[in-house]
Amino acid sequence: MNPPTHATASLPSEFSRIRQDDNARWFHPWEYMPEAGHANRTIASHADGIYLYDENGQQLIDGPGGMWCVQIGYNRREMADAIAEQAMRMPYMNPFSLTSAPPARLAARLAQMAPGDLRHVFLTTGGSTAVDTALRFVHFYNNVKGRPEKKHIISRAHAYHGSTYLCALVTGKDREKNWFDVAAPFAHLLPHVNPARRPTGMSVAAFCEAKVQDLQTKIVELGADKVGAFIAEPIQASGGVIVPPEGYLRRCWEICRKYDVLFIADEVVTGFGRLGHWFASKDVFGVEPDMITCAKGLSSGYVPLGALLISSRLFDEVSGEHARGASFGTGFTYSGHPVCCAAALKNIEIIEREGLLEHVREVAPHFQHRLQALREIPMVFDARGMGLVGCVECSVAHLHGVGLDEEQILALDTDLGTRIDRHCHELGLLVRPLVNQCVFSPPLIITCEQIDRMFDILREAILRTMHDVERELGINVV
Ligand SMILES: Cc1ncc(COP(=O)(O)O)c(C=O)c1O
Question: Using a 6 Å cutoff on CB, does residue 315 contact ligand 1?
Fold first, then answer.
């Protein structure tokens, strides 16, 4: 890592102006509107390796790796150089009529890395635009093939597929839908696939069978001639790091093949080393999807970029003599942006040169071991994860001597993630709170010692939160 060069960039007075401007003017993603204008967010000042520094100069381990994206860590001079070099050579090129080295090379590289016959690459501006394009391709594909009815898309509860209107239709999280109008005549959500919440007394194997049946039943109910695609994150990330039961994804893929339904793997989080492989679909779950969407780790968050990988079989069926005069009339001004593609090529080079996929496979067992050890804490309801991604879920319901009804428990649980986050921050760790859960996906360069430090802090923060709650409820602190 290079020495941080920005530590002195802002004075306290400057920080207070930043906070003022932020509170008054920046309408943030997922803004909680009752607090709009006085959210007083932490100001991230600069970053290095796995660490972010706040306005007070406090060093924070970046537990979520930005937003599951900073694979190679911060402050990489060669990334900055690759970006600057391309910006000077040619910052932009019209992607509809021209090509240039970075996007063409990146497409070729991705096609080489992808499983099966995913040999065609549509470059986008991020994850949502990749998923949006995948869903539009399903409709385009069936229109060109003369099957205008085969348009329904099946997704799952707790899925997160992005924030365009189309992506929101197949997203299965209430918070992303509650205050919007979502007209979704062709989108269908299957029930959740979280083994930790399976019915009491049901084995994981029986639960898996039931979940696979959910998909089959839905396809049969809608009619296979009307179902275009099934979309799934191999691990549901923002839904709370839900790892499906073993064999589930492959069985779903087989069902999709049986009924001629396209299988879209949304690898926006699981791709680019998070599970120790470029893509997790085949190497981890034994699935060869018809399409893969990716983003985030593709450029390690240094610049915005996404990609949709499409199988040659599909592409060939709707191109050339089969195209019937159709053009795929969608894309973005910044599709194949040369600067972003140059950054992605450098990012891939770094991941490869530093053996980060192998590194993840080496350190992941330790990460998962430390994660599972959190279960000893009475307030921890579940700990789950895979590779370098994890989630700890808490509930006050399990505290010794708690005498609350369900509604009171729910009210307290809702706040647990934020409370844990506050303690973590004091102790030097950023987490991503999601209601009563905290999720982690640190930079892939993290070492075993740093993993230990991260979980030591998290453990202490959960204990402190638990003791706070116990004090507030008047329960004897053990
Ligand atoms: C699985 C998945 N798909 C799609 C997206 C949307 O990506 P973006 O925020 O880059 O548009 C996300 C973002 O978190 C994601 O986790």
Answer: no
State yes or no: pLDDT of 45 exceeds 90: yes
Residue 230 near residue 196, CB atoms below 8 Å: no
The string of DSSP letters for 193-228 reads: --GGGSPTT--HHHHHHHHHHHHHHHHHHH-GGGEE
Total Cβ atoms within 10 A of residue 254: 14
List phi, psi (to 5°) of 54: -90, -175
Token representation of residue 269:
């989080």
Tell whether the torsion through CA atoms of 76, 82, 85 and 90 is positive or negative. negative
Number of C-beta neighbours around residue 325 at 10 A: 5
Q: What is the pLDDT of residue 289?
A: 98
Q: pTM for this structure?
A: 0.96
Does position 405 have pLDDT exceeding 90, yes or no? no
Are the beta carbons of 406 and 452 closer than 8 angstroms? no
Per-residue pLDDT band at 13 (split at 50, 70, 90) = confident
- CA-proximal residue: ligand 1, atom 7 (nearest): 127
Q: What is the mean pLDDT of residues 250-275?
A: 98
The answer for 293, left when phi > 0, alpha when psi is -120 to 50, beta otherwise, is beta
Distance 439 CA to ligand 1 centre (A): 15
- The rounded distance, in Å, linking the Cα atoms of 350 and 135 is 32
Helix (H) or strand (E) holding 154: strand 152-156
CA of 162 to the centre of ligand 1 (A): 5
Beta carbon of 124 within 6 Å of any ligand 1 atom: no
DSSP character for 323?
A: S
Spatial CB neighbours of 247, under 8 Å, sequence gap ≥ 6: 208
62-88 residues labelled b (16+ CB within 10 A) or e (exposed): bbbbbebbbbbbbbbeebeebbeebee
| Residue found by looking up tokens 């660490």 in the block | 51
Phi, psi torsion values for 47, nearest 5 degrees:
-150, 155
Distance between Cα 161 and ligand 1 center (Å): 6
> Is the C-beta atom of 162 inside 6 A of ligand 1?
yes
In the block, residue with structure tokens 């709370």: 240
High-pLDDT (> 90) share of the chain, %: 90
- Expressed in angstroms and rounded, the spacing between residue 9 Cα and the centre of ligand 1 is 31
d(CA 344, CA 325): 34
Q: What is the pLDDT of residues 269-312, one digit of tens each?
A: 999 999 999 999 999 999 999 999 999 999 999 999 999 999 99
- pLDDT at 9 (0 to 100): 52
For 319-372, what is each residue's pLDDT tens digit? 999 999 999 999 999 999 999 999 999 999 999 999 999 999 999 999 999 999
pLDDT at residue 189 is higher than 80: yes
